[in-house]
Every structure is written in structure tokens, then in C-alpha cells.
Design goal:
Blueprint (H helix, E strand, L loop, with lengths): L5 H14 L6 H4 L5 H17 L4 E7 L3 H7 L5 E6 L19 E10 L10 H7 E11 L10 H6 L4 E6 L15 E6 L2 E7 L7 H13 L10 E3 L7 E2 L5 E6 L4 E5 L2
Parallel strand pairs: 1-8
Antiparallel strand pairs: 1-2, 3-4, 3-8, 3-9, 4-5, 6-7, 6-10, 10-11
This protein binds 2-oxoadipic acid and magnesium ion (MG).
């Protein structure tokens, strides 16, 4: 089926996800796809998941760090939605075969106690609406061959969302130094990458402000209870069966994922 409109793009992306098959860029077949229309594809894709029984539980920012923008060759941040089906593994191992070519990345998550709504959202609003901050690991799994995409492709693909795991340490905003919070990403006990909170657009809280104001242009807001992933602090690494991945933060604690 040729891809030339929102419905056909959604069908192609859902088929790739459900069959665990990578595919070519949507923009190769539909060069006119711009970022605005790509967000319509994303919204329609999420509506299809909701119709199939999934529930939205979170919101994610992507490509908010220089490390990720350079790794993916895209120079603007984007956002997507997380459903209950993405929340994984209460300590159980992650099965690599459940995905196409999964990668993992350490992130900082804000958990909202109150709604956040643009267009005039400020840093103080984010501070007041956040009930706590926690460590997170995100599993991303682009539906595109070799994670090769342009910005509209990855927006349409719900920002490569595939899974996430939250840490158990909860800290209130202001009770630690968010911007200088260090993290190490370890694979099988070896440090692969390090960063601090500043990797996320200089300040993860400001990244949330910008994203809330951006989604307001499409009439969207974040309800109380939303889990907000603020974007990878380091490059993402591929998940391999038999390997162990740890995100080790100074104040936010540690998350470990074992892969099968
Ligand atoms: C896009 C998703 C990026 C992040 O945290 O930067 C992302 C991708 O790299 O496939 O989730
Ligand atoms: Mg991410």
C-alpha cells in the first residue's frame, strides 16, 4: 500500500510495530510530510492504541540532548506519548525478541501531581505541578531500518517509544541539584557514557516548559499523574540478550535491567 496520507502512514507504522519488522522512512514515499502533519499521524496512531485498550500514562521528550541529536542526525527536539503497555518489567528481564532493534537510554522523569497546560507555562508552574522526580530508563525501538529517519518520520513513529522503567527513589524538586545531577550508563558493569542533568537542553525543567508550550499549539496538555520523560542524557545503546544495563545516578539512585 502506498503511503500518502495520515491513515496509510498509521497503518504502515502499526504494522511494522506489531510484526516487529523494520521499514523504510515514511518521508521517502510521502516527501510532503511535514512536522505538523506528522504530529497528526502520531495522534491518530495513539488513538488506535487507545481504541485497542491501551491507556496514556506518560509523555516523552526526545532529542533534547546534543549527544542524541548528533547520534540521530536530527537537530530539533520532539515529543510523544507513553501508554501503560510501554511500562515494563518490575524487575523482570527485558526480552530483546519482543522488539525490532531496541536501544536503552538513561533519563530523568518528572511525575505530575497537577495538570500542566500552555501556552504560558513557566518553570515555576513545572516546579509547582511536579509531585516528584525519579530516574528512568527508556527503551526506544524505531520502526525505521537502522534508526534512519528525518524529523517528521520520527514524530510520526511516536518518537520511537517502546518501553520505560522508573526508579524507586522519589525526590521533590528543589531537594537536589537537578542540573548537576550526574549519571553513568553501565553495560555489563563497564561505564559506557556519563552526563549530568544539564545535558537536557541545559535544564530538564526548562525542557518540560518548552514542550508543554509546544503541545499547547495543538490544543494538548498534560493531566495530573502524567509521567514525563525528559529525554536521554547520553547516547542510547543497543540491548543484547544476556547483557545487563544500569543507569547509576548520584541522588536519584540506580536502575538495572537484565536482557534475555
Ligand atoms: C528518537 C527518540 C529519542 C530521546 O530521549 O532522545 C529519545 C530516537 O532516537 O529514536 O527518546
Ligand atoms: Mg528517550
Amino acid at each position: 500500500m502506498p503511503i500518502n496520507d495520515v491513515e496509510s502512514a498509521v497503518d504502515a507504522l502499526l504494522q511494522a510495530e506489531n510484526r516487529r519488522e523494520e521499514r523504510g522512512r515514511v518521508t521517502t514515499e510521502w516527501p510532503g510530510l511535514d512536522a505538523g502533519t506528522a504530529y497528526e499521524v502520531q495522534r491518530t496512531l495513539i488513538e488506535a492504541k487507545i481504541a485497542a485498550g491501551e491507556e496514556i500514562v506518560g509523555f516523552k521528550l526526545g532529542l533534547t540532548s546534543k549527544a542524541k541529536q548528533e547520534q540521530m542526525n536530527v537537530d530539533a527536539p520532539l515529543s510523544g506519548w507513553l501508554t501503560d503497555a510501554h511500562q515494563c518489567c518490575n524487575g523482570e528481564p527485558v526480552k530483546v525478541a519482543n522488539y525490532i532493534h531496541p536501544r536503552i537510554e538513561p533519563e530523568i522523569a518528572f511525575i505530575l501531581g497537577r495538570e500542566l497546560k500552555g501556552p504560558n507555562c513557566t518553570r515555576d508552574d513545572v516546579k509547582e505541578a511536579t509531585s516528584h522526580i525519579t530516574a528512568a530508563f527508556e527503551i526506544i525501538d524505531s520502526r525505521y531500518r537502522d534508526f534512519n529517519f528525518a524529523l517528521p518520520d520520527v514524530i510520526a513513529d511516536n518518537a520511537s517509544s517502546a518501553g520505560f522503567i522508573l526508579g524507586k527513589t522519589h525526590i521533590k524538586v528543589g531537594e537536589f541539584d537537578l542540573i548537576n545531577e550526574p549519571v553513568e550508563l553501565l553495560v555489563d558493569g563497564e561505564v559506557q557514557a556519563t552526563a549530568t542533568g544539564a545535558a537536557v537542553l541545559g535544564d530538564p525543567a526548562q525542557a518540560v516548559v518548552d514542550a508543554v508550550n509546544e503541545i499547547a499549539t495543538r490544543g494538548q496538555s498534560l493531566p495530573a499523574g502524567t509521567i514525563v520523560l525528559t529525554g536521554a542524557l547520553t547516547d542510547a545503546v543497543f540491548l543484547n540478550p544476556g547483557s545487563k544495563y544500569t543507569a547509576r545516578f548520584k541522588s536519584l539512585g540506580e536502575i538495572t535491567v537484565n536482557c534475555l
